[in-house]
Amino acid sequence: MAELQLGRKSGRKPGVITACRHTHLKHFAKGMCNHCYHRYGRKSLATECKHSDRKMYSKGKCQNCYINEYNKVKRQGKKQAQEDELNR
């Protein structure tokens, strides 16, 4: 019950920024804020796209390839929804 009063829904403790100087910002990952994590916290390189010299963003891809695929899937989903609506 005390956790609900503190605003925590899970049993996890809130993240604390310890690895960068932006202690006033919201914690993102590896003890860093969002900006510092994306700039300094990522180490592995992309393996699922042709840009193997770039840092991995998500799903083994660099940021550019991931966003292109995400938008492509999103467009296809919207197109399918519109077609389903027309077929009703």
Helix content: 40-55%
Gross morphology is flat
Low-confidence stretches: 1-6
Radius of gyration: 19 Å
| Strand order in space, largest sheet | 1-2
Per DSSP, the total helix count is 3
| Helix and strand pattern | HEEHH
Largest sheet: 2 strands, antiparallel
Number of strands: 2
Structural class: mainly alpha
Number of domains: 2
What is the typical, i.e. mean, pLDDT?
A: 84
Query: What percent of residues are in strands?
Result: 5-15%
End-to-end span in angstroms?
48 Å
Describe the structure.
The protein has 88 residues and is mainly α. It has two domains: 12-41, no CATH class; 44-88. The protein is built from three helices and two strands, in the order H-E-E-H-H. The protein has helices spanning 2-6, 34-41, 63-86; strands at 27-29, 32-33. Strands 1-2 form a two-stranded antiparallel ribbon. Strand 1 (27-29) and strand 2 (32-33) form a beta hairpin. The termini are far apart. Residues 1-6 have low confidence and may be disordered.
Concise description?
The protein is mostly helical. It has helices at residues 2-6, 34-41, 63-86; strands spanning 27-29, 32-33.
Give me some keywords for this one:
two-stranded antiparallel ribbon; mainly alpha; 88 residues; 2 domains; disordered N terminus; flat; 42% helix
